[in-house]
Amino acid sequence: MSQDLQAGPAAPARERLLLGQTVVVIGGSAGIGLATAVHARAEGAQVVLTGRDPQRLQQAAAAVGARSHTAFDAHDLDHLSAFFDALPGPVDHVLVTAGAPSYGLLADLDVAAAGRHVAEHLSMTLAVARAATGRVRAGGSLLLMGGTGARRPGPGLTVAAVLTAALPALVRNLAVELAPIRANLLAAGFVDTPLSAALLGDALDERRAALRATLPIGRVVGPEDVAALAVHVMVNTALTGAVLDIDGGQQLV
């Protein structure tokens, strides 16, 4: 008997989960946004990327094979609205990863800047949600990024805690108001991204080592982990109004 006959028939190719769909990533030039774009492309999606840095965005778009890319600051609501208006047709999913957390002790806090940070992030999120109406197909999804780290009170987390508390309430209301578009929130802990490196600087390696030693999963969460969950949420049409934690058990320890 030949080797080919002994091997048996080849397994059928798995159908790609996002084949024929379009995914828009607001903040897709690096980190979680870019990793999600890569994962979505592997599952057959067309991707549209936005980012603030034109050069970095162009490099990301070329690397992932994006359908298109547009550079602007997502907190500029006029540019954000113009971007959605210029989309050539309906899309299936919108992921928002733009923005960075704000940390600082109350004694050192620029109160006006902290207020602007919270207002800008919430305004951007609301603007994306409103733009999604009429742009995202029924059954498609709006996916927001939040965090778990500021659920437990601590010095320097005052501003981050405001958004940590606000986003779950916001996404539950959006799930009702945007229906049949689905709205969900991914809540991450530390994720090993360029943003984390920029925030921690020389303390990055120490932070990685501490997490490897203490997290129940025994390793650091990477952007690919969050990207895999993001694609699952896009595909699973039973999910809406949900907050899905992905922190490797960080909040447990």
Short key terms for the protein model shown above:
Rossmann fold, single chain, 9 helices, alpha/beta, 253 residues
Polypeptide structure, described:
By secondary structure, the protein is of the alpha/beta class. The chain has a single domain, classed as Rossmann fold. It is built from 9 helices and 7 strands, in the order H-E-H-E-H-E-H-E-H-E-H-E-H-H-H-E. It has helices spanning 3-7, 31-42, 54-64, 77-86, 111-132, 158-177, 194-200, 204-214, 223-235; strands at 22-26, 46-51, 68-71, 91-96, 136-147, 182-188, 243-246. It has a 7-stranded parallel sheet, sandwiched between helices. Helix 2 links the parallel strand 1 and strand 2 (46-51). Helix 2 (31-42) packs across helix 9 (223-235), helix 4 (77-86) packs parallel to helix 5 and helix 5 (111-132) runs parallel beside helix 6. The longest helix has 22 residues, at 111-132. The N and C termini lie far apart (57 Å). The model has no long low-confidence stretch (mean pLDDT 93).
Count the strands?
7
Report the structural category. alpha/beta
The portion of residues assigned to helices is 40-55%
CATH superfamily: NAD(P)-binding Rossmann-like Domain
Mean pLDDT value: 93
CATH class: Alpha Beta
**Spatial separation of the terminal alpha carbons:** 57 Å
Residue stretches low in confidence (pLDDT < 50, at least 5 long) are: none
- Oligomeric organization of the protein chains: single chain
CATH-scheme architecture:
3-Layer(aba) Sandwich
Instruction: Give Rg in angstroms.
Output: 19 Å
**Largest sheet, if any?**
7 strands, parallel
CATH topology: Rossmann fold
How many distinct folded domains?
1
